User: What shape does this take?
Amino acid sequence: DVKVTQSSRYLVKRTGEKVFLECVQDMDHENMFWYRQDPGLGLRLIYFSYDVKMKEKGDIPEGYSVSREKKERFSLILESASTNQTSMYLCASSDFFTGISTDTQYFGPGTRLTVL
Amino acid sequence: QKEVEQNSGPLSVPEGAIASLNCTYSDRGSQSFFWYRQYSGKSPELIMFIYSNGDKEDGRFTAQLNKASQYVSLLIRDSQPSDSATYLCAVSNSGGYQKVTFGTGTKLQVIP
Assistant: This one.
């Protein structure tokens, strides 16, 4: 069964703290993604990675960085958390695009981050 | 113009009725189209995907795609209260890397 896990369901941090969100998938997927989801704005792509040590900026990368040292693990880093980064963060993974791939993304349970 | 547009709802239908959810997209090069369901407080889960023009049926769900009109829809037959959720439309351009754009979702309420 497909499984994507995230390190925390709920997280409360203070402004200026460095925050690490971890995501692990057990499906041997090539692609991994980080989104944030906010009411009225939907899912917005922060960063994605299509291979180990590879990363690409998504639509809203400012204030975030990522790390992918192993295929199964993709970390999102908030270098200096701010209140406007309070959000639901969702990790997803998908198989390598082959031209006939479904492009289906499998999501983790999400981390609700509150920055005070 | 948003890349993927959905009516936010809520769309209310009585139990047993057909729920019709609609989505339009702006990129004519889009290749793959997805419907995800998201229950409150949970993460999205895939219901269906469709590539080709026409209808695709899976149980009570039917996805419809019209590339000429840049329109994709999801029909839910015999709607159940357990179908109450937010439905996200997603579109992939499949151009070199997997760029998937999500709509903001339509909230469906099925009234018992």
